[in-house]
Amino acid sequence: MAMLELRNIDAGYGRIQILHDVTIDVSEGEVVCVIGPNGAGKSTTFKVIMGFINYLGGEIRFEGEDIVGKRPDQILGYGLGYVPQGRIVFNQMTVRENLEIGAYIERDAKKVKDAMDYVFTLFPRLEERQKQLGGTMSGGEQQMLAMGRALMTRPRMIMLDEPSLGLSPRFVTEIFNKILGLAKEGITIMVVEQNAARALEIADRGYVLELGRNRYEGTGQELLGNPDVRRMYLGG
Ligand SMILES: Nc1ncnc2c1ncn2[C@@H]1O[C@H](COP(=O)(O)OP(=O)(O)OP(=O)(O)O)[C@@H](O)[C@H]1O
Ligand SMILES: [Mg+2]
Fold it and tell me: Which whole-number Å values give the CA distances from 106 to 84, 96, 114, 173, 182, in the listed order?
C-alpha cells in the first residue's frame, strides 16, 4: 500500500480546472520526484494534497486515511510536511522563531524543544544562526530554514516544492545532499524540481506532468534513459 496515494485527481482554481486525472503513488521510504514544464500543475498538486485549493474529484489518501476535505493543520498532524515553492520565511523573525512557528500545532513545550534539537542536528547552520533574522539569511540558508520549519512537526513524509530553485551550484549540491540525508533518516520524500536531471538521479521513481496530466512515469534511471524525456526535459 502506498503511503500517499493520489487517484484520478481533478482540481483547479475557482472554475478553472488545472489537474486532470492525476495519479501518483509514493511508498514509504521512497524518494519520488515530479518534473514537468512551467505551469504543468506541479505546485497545484501539492496544494490540493494540503487542502489549499478547489478539489473537483478523485481520491487522496495518506497512510490509508482519506484526507480530502481536511484542513492543512490536520494534514500536518497526520505526519505529512510541506515546504512551499519560494522558501517563504518570516523575514522579521529570527531563525529560532521561524522554527517555533513550524511547531504551532504542538502544545507540548518539551516536544517543541525536542523537535528543535532534531532540526539543529540535521541543519547545524540553523543552530549557529538561530538569533539571525530570517530575511538576512542567504537563499540557500532560507531554503534550509523552510525545510527545518516543516520538520518541526516530525513528519514521516515531506513534500518539497522546488527546493533548489535560484540557488548557486554549491547550494544546489548542499540541498540535494540534505534531501538524501532526510531520506536516510527514514523520511519519505516527494520533491518537485526544475533541476530534473539532478532530481531523477537521487529519486527512486519519478513522474512527468504536462498540462495538468500524467505524461511519463518510471524509476529515476528509466526516465533518465527515456529519449523523449531526455529531449524534452533534460536538454537532449
Ligand atoms: N492562484 C491561482 N489562480 C489561478 N490560476 C492559478 C493559480 N495558481 C496557479 N494557477 C495556474 O495553474 C497552472 C499550474 O500552475 P502550477 O503553479 O501548479 O505550475 P507548476 O507546474 O508548479 O509550474 P512552475 O514550474 O512554474 O512552478 C498554471 O497555468 C497557473 O497559471
Ligand atoms: Mg511550481
Answer: 20, 16, 11, 32, 21
β-strand partners of 55 = 11
CB distance 67 to 39 below 8 Å: no
pTM more than 0.85 = yes
State yes or no: pLDDT of 236 exceeds 70: no
- DSSP helix/strand/coil, 46: helix
**Does the CB atom of residue 38 touch ligand 1 within 6 A?**
yes
Cell of 224: 533518465
CB atoms within 10 A of CB 12: 18
Ligand 1 pocket, 181 CB below 6 A? Answer: no
Specify the CATH class of 4-87+150-233 in words: alpha beta
Interstrand relation of 54-62 and 65-66 (parallel, antiparallel or unpaired): antiparallel
The residues spanned by each domain of the chain are 4-87+150-233
